[in-house]
Design brief:
Length: about 700
C-alpha cells in the first residue's frame, strides 16, 4: 500500500506518534495509535470501507465528524464509525459487505444504573463558542461541565492553519486557528469551577430535563440547571450523480485529514463552493501538497472574503463563478468531475460542460446549524441557550463573541452576574457576523522613495492587525473602523520592520523598498507554502493581485520570525520600479490542469442520491412529491428516505429543497418527527452493560 502521510508541512509540526499494526481484511498494515481508523485506512490509500447492501455501491468517508454513518467498518467483530473510533494495536478491521453481522456472545453482561450528575451549567461542544462561554462562567465560579466528542478541545479551530481576521485584542487576529484553540484551552485550564469531559458524545435531551451522554463506553445522565448548546454546524450536501462516491468529501472532512491527521487524502481536487470555507480549504490543500485544479461557485461572485479568493488565484487556482457541478464519475472512487456554467435563471448550459480528471471533489456548499439539542430542550421547557454556529452560521471569531455573551447571560440568570452585558461585545459580534462589503478600487501610494507597505485588500471586512502591530503608528484604517480599509498615514514614517506583512491574515500586504537601486525596488512578499520553492537564488513567478504573472524573479532573501510569526516566510525579490507595487504573490501551481475530457451524456439529475443511508434517489422522492405527498413522515414510510443510521442529518435539507424545486409551498409540508436520540448509541451502552474485563 502507498503511504499517504504528510511528513513536511509549512505550518504544522509533524508530531512523534507510536506506530501500531492492524489488519484490514486480513492484510497487515501500520498506523498510529489513537488516530481515527478512517485516517489510518486513508493513509494506507484505502478509500473504500465497504459496499452498501441495497445496490453494492462503494462506501467511504464523507463528513469525518460522526454525522453521516457512511464510514462504517467492522472492528474486532463490532460495527463502528471509522471517523470517530481510535485505532488500537492489533485491531482486526474488516470492510462492511452487506449488513454487518454481530458476533456471538455467550457471556452474561453486567448491568449498571447510569450514574447521574447534577451541575449548574452543561455546555455541549468545546469549539470556539463553547470554550469562550466556559471561560466566562469559570471566571465567575459557576459549576460548569463542558463535554465534547473529540479527544481535544477547539472544534474546527484545530483544523485551521490560516491566520484569523478581526482584531488582535478581541479575537486573536493574526493568529492561526489551531493556536487560538491552544490559547483558549490554557485560559480554561486555570479555572477550577469548570470540568471538561472529552470523548463524550451527547446523545439526547429528555422530558425530565436529563441530557444523556456517552463517555467512553459508559452512558451517563446529566441534569443541568442551565444548558448551553454550542454544537457547531454540519455541512450541506449537494444533489448530483456520483455525489456519494468515495472521494467526495465535505470540506471539514478534508481539513480534518490534511490538517489534524496529516494525511494526504488526494492528489488532484476540485472544490465546489466559493464561501470562506471552500476558499480556505483550497489554501489548505496546496499547503498539504495537493493540486487544486479549480474552484467553482454557483453565484456570479465568490461569497467569501476577496483576499482569500485572490490568494488562491495568486497561487495558480482558476476560479469559475456561475458554475455548478454536473456529475462525479468513477467505478469505485472519483475519477473525474464535470462542471457547467449556469445562466441567469440558474439553468445548466450544456454547451459549457468541462470535465476534469480528479480524485477528489471537495464540497463546501454551506453549513447547517446543529441545533436539535437546543430545539428539543426548548420543547421540554429547559432553560437553554445556544452559541456559535448552533445559534447562527458565522465565522469562528464571531462564535467566540457569542460564547462570551451567552456565558454572561447564563451567569446572569443564575444570579451570579449583576451588570449589563457589555454593549461593545454585541456590536463587535454583529460586525464579525456581517457579510463582506463590496469591492473598492483604491489608489496605491504614488511615492517611489524610501520603504513602505502596499495594501492589496479592496474589500471591507473586520480586520485591523496591520494597524495594531505597526510600532510607528504609520498605519490606520479608514474612519478608524475595524472594517475600514488600511492605509499608510505618511510613507516617511515607515521604518521597514515588516510586522504588517507578517501579520496580515489575507497575505495582502507587501513591502516595497526603493532605497538601494534607482531602477529596481526590493519587494517583500508573504509566503506560506513549501520552503523548497523559494530558496535563495531560485527564480520564482511573481504575480499581480489577480494571479497574472508579472515575470520570473530571483529570490534575494528569505526572512522568518518563528518566535513571533511562526509559519510565515517573507520572500524578497528585486523588481523593476514600474511593477514593484503590483507584485503581490508567488505562483505555485505552475502546471495548469485544463479540462481533458468531453462530457457527452444527457444530464441524469434524478440519479443523484439524496438519502445516503438508504440509497434513495432524487427521482424516487420527486415521484412521491408529484403523487401528492406533503408529509415528510409519510415520504419516509414510502421511500425509506431519512430512515437510516444518521437520522436524516444529510438528506433532510435536500428533501426540503426538492419540495421547493417542485414548486410546493413549504408551508404545506409537514416536517418529520425527530427520534428521541440524535446520535446512534449501542443498546448495551444505554442499558449500562459493561464487559467484565473493563471492571
Amino acid at each position: 500500500m502507498t503511504d499517504k502521510r504528510i511528513t513536511q508541512h509549512p505550518i504544522l509540526k509533524v508530531p512523534k506518534r507510536k506506530q501500531v499494526t492492524f489488519t484490514w481484511n486480513g492484510k497487515t498494515l501500520t498506523g498510529f495509535e489513537g488516530e481515527m481508523i478512517a485516517s489510518a485506512l486513508l493513509a494506507n490509500d484505502i478509500h473504500i470501507f465497504g459496499h452498501h447492501p441495497k445496490d453494492n455501491s462503494p462506501q467511504g468517508m464523507f463528513c469525518a465528524n460522526g454525522q453521516c454513518s457512511q464510514c462504517l467498518v467492522v472492528a474486532n467483530g463490532l460495527p463502528v464509525k471509522a471517523c470517530m473510533t481510535p485505532l488500537k494495536d492489533g485491531v482486526a478491521l474488516q470492510s462492511v459487505e452487506g449488513l454487518p453481522r454481530l458476533p456471538e456472545d455467550d457471556d452474561v453482561p453486567l448491568l449498571k444504573e447510569p450514574p447521574l450528575r447534577e451541575v449548574e451549567t452543561l455546555i455541549i461542544g468545546g469549539g470556539p463558542a463553547g470554550l469562550s462561554a466556559a471561560i466566562e462562567l469559570g471566571r465567575l465560579g459557576v459549576d460548569t461541565l463542558l463535554i465534547d466528542d473529540k479527544s481535544k478541545l477547539g472544534g474546527k479551530l484545530l483544523l485551521q492553519t490560516h491566520k484569523f481576521f478581526g482584531s488582535v485584542e478581541d479575537s486573536h487576529a493574526g493568529t492561526r486557528g489551531f493556536e487560538i484553540a491552544q490559547i483558549l484551552e490554557r485560559e480554561l485550564s486555570r479555572l477550577d469551577s469548570v470540568e471538561v469531559w472529552l470523548n463524550t458524545t451527547a446523545a439526547g435531551v429528555f422530558s425530565d430535563h436529563i441530557v444523556g451522554v456517552v463517555k467512553g463506553h459508559t452512558y451517563r445522565k446529566i441534569k443541568p440547571e442551565k444548558l448551553l448548546v454550542a454544537t457547531g454546524a454540519r455541512e450541506r450536501a449537494l444533489s448530483f450523480p456520483g455525489n456519494t462516491l468515495p472521494g467526495v468529501y465535505g470540506a471539514g472532512a478534508f481539513q480534518t485529514l490534511v490538517n489534524r491527521d496529516l494525511v494526504k487524502s488526494s492528489e488532484r481536487v476540485l472544490i465546489v463552493g466559493g464561501g470562506n470555507v471552500g476558499l480556505i480549504a483550497g489554501y489548505h490543500a496546496i499547503q498539504a501538497g495537493i493540486h487544486v485544479v479549480a474552484l467553482i461557485e454557483a453565484m456570479p461572485q465568490v461569497g467569501g472574503y476577496m483576499v482569500h479568493a485572490n490568494k488562491l488565484k495568486r497561487l495558480g487556482v482558476p476560479i469559475y463563478t456561475s458554475h455548478t457541478v454536473v456529475a462525479a464519475d468513477g467505478e469505485e472512487h472519483v475519477e473525474s468531475v464535470t462542471i457547467a456554467e449556469l445562466d441567469k435563471d440558474w439553468n445548466v448550459l450544456p454547451e459549457t460542460y468541462k470535465t476534469f480528471a480528479v480524485d477528489t471533489v471537495l464540497m463546501a456548499v454551506g453549513l447547517i446549524e446543529v441545533n436539535e439539542f437546543y430545539s428539543k430542550a426548548k420543547e421540554w421547557g429547559m432553560d437553554v441557550f445556544s452559541a456559535g454556529d448552533a445559534q447562527e452560521i458565522a465565522e469562528a471569531s464571531a462564535a467566540m463573541f457569542t460564547g462570551k455573551i451567552e456565558g454572561l447571560r447564563i451567569a446572569k440568570s443564575l444570579g451570579l452576574y449583576n451588570r449589563e452585558i457589555p454593549q461593545e461585545w454585541r456590536e463587535k459580534e454583529a460586525i464579525l457576523k456581517a457579510k463582506p462589503g463590496p469591492t473598492i478600487q483604491k489608489e496605491t501610494p504614488k511615492e517611489e522613495h524610501g520603504v513602505f507597505p502596499v495594501f492589496h485588500c479592496h474589500q471591507e471586512v473586520p480586520c485591523n492587525p496591520c494597524a495594531t502591530v505597526c510600532p510607528e503608528g504609520a498605519i490606520r484604517t479608514e474612519g478608524d473602523r475595524i472594517t475600514g480599509l488600511p492605509y499608510i498615514v505618511d510613507v516617511d514614517l515607515c521604518k521597514g520592520c515588516m510586522n504588517c506583512v507578517f501579520v496580515c491574515p489575507g497575505l495582502a500586504v507587501t513591502l516595497v523598498d526603493y532605497r538601494k537601486d534607482p531602477a529596481y525596488a526590493v519587494v517583500t512578499i508573504p509566503y506560506e507554502i513549501g520552503r523548497e520553492r523559494v530558496e535563495i537564488g531560485q527564480k520564482v513567478p511573481v504575480t499581480d493581485l489577480d494571479g497574472g504573472i508579472l515575470g520570473y524573479y530571483t529570490v534575494e532573501k528569505v526572512v522568518s520570525n518563528e518566535k513571533k510569526y511562526p509559519g510565515t516566510l517573507l520572500v524578497q525579490v528585486k523588481i523593476e520600479k514600474p511593477l514593484a507595487k503590483k507584485a503581490v504573490g508567488i505562483w505555485v501551481q505552475e502546471e495548469r490542469i485544463d479540462p481533458s475530457l468531453i462530457y457527452e451524456k444527457a444530464l441524469p439529475p434524478d440519479e443523484a442520491i439524496i438519502c445516503r443511508c438508504e440509497r434513495v434517489t432524487a427521482g424516487e422522492i420527486r415521484s412521491t412529491i408529484r403523487a401528492g405527498i406533503r408529509d415528510i413522515n409519510q415520504l419516509k414510510a414510502l421511500t425509506r428516505a431519512g430512515m437510516g443510521a444518521c437520522g436524516s442529518k444529510t438528506c433532510r435539507p435536500m428533501i426540503w429543497r426538492l419540495f421547493e424545486e417542485e414548486g410546493i409551498d413549504l408551508a404545506e409540508v409537514t416536517d418529520r418527527i425527530d427520534r428521541p436520540l440524535f446520535v446512534e448509541v449501542p443498546l448495551g451502552v444505554l442499558a449500562g452493560m459493561r464487559n467484565r474485563d473493563e471492571e
